[in-house]
Amino acid sequence: MPLRAPAASRPLSPSSISGKLKAMVWLMVLPTVLLSVMAGVAVFHTERRAAINAAMETAEALSLVTDREMAVRTALLQALSVSPSLREGRLDQFYWEAARLVAGSVNTIVLSRPDGQQVLNTRVPWGQALSLTPAFLHPPPKDPPKERALTVSDIYLGATDKRLSFAVRVPVTVNGETMNLGFGSPVSELQQIFRQQPLPEGWLGVVLDSRGYVAARTLDPEQRAGQRASTNMLGAIERADRGIVDARTLDGVPVVTVFARAPDSGWVVLIGLSRSQLGQSAWAAFGLTLCVSLIFIVVAILVARRIGGSIVRPLQRLRDDALLLGGGGGISASASGLEEVDIVQQALVAASEERSGHDRRLRDEIEAAVAQTRTAQEAALRSQKLEALGRLTGGIAHDFNNLLQTMTTGLQLARRLSTDARANNALAACQRATTKAAQLTRQLLAFGRQQVGHETVIDLRQQLPELIELVRGAVGSAIETTVATDEALWAVRTDPVQLELAILNLALNARDAMHGRGRLAVHATNRVVAADEIPDLLAGDYVSIAVIDDGDGMTQEQMQHAFEPFFTTKAVGQGTGLGLAQVYALARGAGGSTTINSKIGLGTEVALWLPRSLGRAASPSTDVPFSSRRYQGTVLLVEDDASVRELTAQALEDLGFRVITAPTADHALDLLRGGTQADVVLSDIVMPGTRSGVDLVRTLKVLKPTLPVVLASGHAVRIEEAPDVRLVAKPYDTDQVAAHLAEAMDLARAALRSKPDAQAAD
Predict the structure, then answer these.
(1) Which bin fits 553, alpha (ψ -120 to 50), beta or left (φ > 0)?
(2) What letter would DSSP give residue 524?
(3) Which CATH class is domain 18-295?
(4) Strand, helix or coil at 460?
(5) Angle CA(516)–CA(522)–CA(528) in degrees, nearest 5?
(6) How far is CA 159 from CA 166, 282, 365, 386, 648, in A?
(7) Tell me, which fold does domain 460-613 have in CATH?
(8) What is the average per-residue pLDDT within 178-204?
(9) Tell me: the pLDDT tens digits for 45-57?
(10) Please, are residues 179 and 112 in contact by the beta-carbon 8 Å criterion?
């Protein structure tokens, strides 16, 4: 007998659905309130920790900036220390060389004996009596600190100008006598650390010397410079190189202070966070979280009560229909007010038949979506890794190229001043080394992003023997290094610097595998490769460059992963895993490939296969003597690095130019708008301020369309936004830059002369 639907007059017990909904809502309220409080407390502590962690990261970054300030000064001293007049004891001539270097600045160059007696001081006229230098006369601490990469004094009161100062020094030899060459600067020069890296409002930044005396400060630096930090702060600094201390500022304000010691100079950077402000921001975050949680709870209760009532009635009707369906009765369609209930009501008959098919299709779609999402995520992670590596290496290359630019220009100036043939040979060797270093920085960018190639046809019979000398110096004399090439070795077309780096990477890997002792051989042979003879290599003519060692060897599994980026068999901290990846990238970029053959205990052979080139190899470069040409014209030099700016200006003036300098593009535009006349602009690309060098070109095309511009940069970049502008890479040769500037001025004058002729023709 079929079941009957309940009569309409027999109501459904309200406690069955609505009562349970209400109980569920109330059961959710109390845990939600508790969770809200816990979340608020967690936010409170998270905000406080985040502020302290941000301050610690800032302190560590500023400590590196402090080291950079000291390193720039040390680099200037090292460039000056190779002066022949200094080495030969012609101190009157060296005095004027040093005085020109710091002319117009607040800096001082001092030559002193080991006991502190000054021999010359650029702030005192030559020949006058000099006192002891106070820079490095402080007694050493009881427990001497670890060896530092830079020799930096603590702050001292200058004997001549009576200003608080600091100094760096390098040892030099004068006529066989060991002396110290120092570079002193007022502590006010260190305020640029906080100008270049501004701190958030309410943060207090302080730079302390190694004894805890204030050298720079974001608040009242003139009044607080030279004062010593509090006792508990000094104790914390002596115990560790970084940490967190509850202390009071010299103004008496209670703060939470984080500190970090600069690794090379030993100076310390403090970041003070006001405890009241820190607690206020954390409490505000806690209160906001709690208020938002309470609002959501109240809204949820109200909405739940309303939804509960709207669900009960349709569900009662759906229950009645289900009973009729179970009893074999018919169900009449009726609108319940809930779309989901209506769909269920209409699908009851077909649900059992279609359920299995829907489940199968749904499972397939989920699996496909998961696989697609995983593939997209892996691609995004690879892209982010390469982008992050590209930005990091790009920043390192830019900063390093600025340092190399200072050294290159200083060496060129030293060569112009030197009359000693042996000194000139040494300076020329240093210049070649800086040129090689500049070329190697270009390789840092190869892993992060694609860049403009520098391929050329290479005769390996000339290239490899020269490279082997570099390899021998890198692997050490304990390793026997040989090279062998075919007499009629074919030429190849590739980037010569990347090829040198690839072979050097293979040699260094071999050195590590041989533990610094063994035999290393480099063989270059012609090979005609048949189809499918070597994996990933098309049939044709190739040159095989094999690097062979008798080291530990590799397992089969290690060989399978050897060319993958970041794979290394070395201990943590001893290898990046990028060496063989660079070799593989070079070979594939040139249209070739790489192979590896190794056996445990017998050694390893890595072969670099490069396609044969039918072009003519470029002639080997030779040292070009300094140009004797004199130039005319006014150059507006726009460069943010003070050392590069000063030395480049001096070098261009020695060539005949009149030079006007500006530290930023904004400053350069202010000069031009103010009436400053210039014949050509030489500008860096990456600079602080609102405009870059490319932005300066765009503005000048509107403001002064006839003024030529030459751009320089430490980044290997394309300048699509300014296609008509010449680009030179840092570090550049000042003679070549002078020729570029003269050519740009000639082209601009020729364009001006051709305009009247063109108008007459019209």
Answers:
(1) left
(2) E
(3) alpha beta
(4) helix
(5) 150
(6) 12, 49, 81, 52, 31
(7) Heat Shock Protein 90 (3.30.565)
(8) 90
(9) 787 788 889 889 9
(10) yes
